[in-house]
Amino acid sequence: MNRAVILSTLAVSALLTRAEDKIDFARQIQPILEKRCIECHNAEKTKGDLRLDEKAEALKADKVIVAGKADDSSLFKRVSLPAGHDDIMPPKGDPLTKEQIDLLKKWLNEGATWPDDVKLKAADPKAAEAAPAKETEKKATAAAPARKGKKKAPGQEFANLKPSQDTAREQEAIKKLAALGVSVRPIAQNLPWKEATVRPQDTNKVGEAVALLKDIPSLVDLNIAKLNLKDDDLKNIAELTNLQRLHLENNPITDAGMAHIKGLVNLEYLNLYNTQVGDGSVDALKGMTNLAALYLWQTKVTDDAGEKLKAALPDTMINRGEELKMLAKIEEQKKAEEAKKAEDKKKEEEKKKADDAKKAEEAKKAEEKKKEEKPAEPKKEEAKKDEKNEDKAEPKKDEKKPEEKKEEKKSEEKKA
């Protein structure tokens, strides 16, 4: 690539960067926080000791909002968790859409700008009650993320559904479920469509409760997550073709179970998080062309099968935990770096210790060598022996010399 092309590419890149709008807190972030977060994190209700209604309070929380670092901000981490995860935020209702999560991430990475004078207030629930019936119906079915290019027109949300022809049988099943502690409710006033979360008061009655569901074809929203369901249990919902939302997460169901529900073609939301569903379910899922959101995180669906699904369902948001995988990879890299630093530090300390020991050994040897080179002092016994020898060599004071003895002998002879 020549210099002119490089400069041209850099210029275009710079223009695109300048053209990209920065996040507007009041227009793009405030509505998300007010609608999905403030209800549990305000001055009166501080769930998790966290307030998000004021900037100062939000920034006081440890690593909830880390300006310039979305990946280090627990706000971003928690909203990015897959549906059904125990720590996902918000814990109630649907997860944030990909667009909302992306906005929060961009806002955090840009420095989390939040005007000091802006205080947030929870969305007013009374406003929804005062809305017209059609608007209420619209909101009741807006839980699944909107699909690009296939958004349904107002009033058409239930156009493909068929109301129950045996309302007496349905009401009897609803009554029996109520006796088990399971509530089946209308999704909105003056509508025949219903929703239910199956959590029997007696956990031994799960099978009985699930079996009653087959008699309630007006169900459009069903949560049967975390019930330890087996594949055959799904036969009871195989005929609930009006279902638009189905929670199956945290159940040990497999591809055999999915074969029972492949006819639920009106599904717009399907959560299979933490199930044993694998590549054998790909064909069944391909037939659910109305899906707007499909959660496959922590399943046995492989990357290749996931790519095939994306190709077959281009308008579907398929969550396979890519964001979490990325976060996990970042965490692994951090841990690996920290482990390497710790190992390097340990090696450095061991090397220093070895060097110090070597120096000490060399100093000891030098000292010993110095002592060897120094003249040895005579031992005490040898010194005493030398002193005795010296004493023997000297004549005693009383003993006369030979010359004196000779002279004395001559003198004696003269006298004689």
Structural commentary:
- The termini are far apart.
- Residues about 1-20 and about 125-150 have low confidence and may be disordered.
- The protein is elongated, with a radius of gyration of 45 Å.
- It has helices at about 5-20, 25-35, 55-60, 75-80, 100-110, 125-130, 135-140, 165-180, 205-210, 255-260, 280-285, 305-310, 320-375, 380-395, 400-415; strands at about 185, 195, 220-225, 245, 270, 295, 315-320.
- The chain contains 15 helices and 7 strands.
Number of strands: 7
The radius of gyration is 45 Å
Bin the strand percentage.
Answer: 5-15%
| N/C terminus separation | 144 Å
| Largest sheet geometry | 7 strands, mixed
Summarize the amount of helix as a percent range. 40-55%
What is the number of helices? 15
Average pLDDT number: 80
Give the SSE map:
Layout: H1 3-19, H2 25-36, H3 55-60, H4 74-79, H5 98-109, H6 125-129, H7 133-140, H8 167-179, E1 184-186, E2 194-197, H9 206-212, E3 219-223, E4 245-247, H10 255-258, E5 269-271, H11 282-286, E6 293-295, H12 303-312, E7 317-319, H13 322-373, H14 380-393, H15 402-415
Parallel strand pairs: 2-3, 3-4, 4-5, 5-6, 6-7
Antiparallel strand pairs: 1-2
Helix pairs in contact: 2-5
Keyword list:
44% helix, disordered N terminus, 416 residues, single chain, mainly alpha
In short:
The protein has 416 residues and is mostly helical.
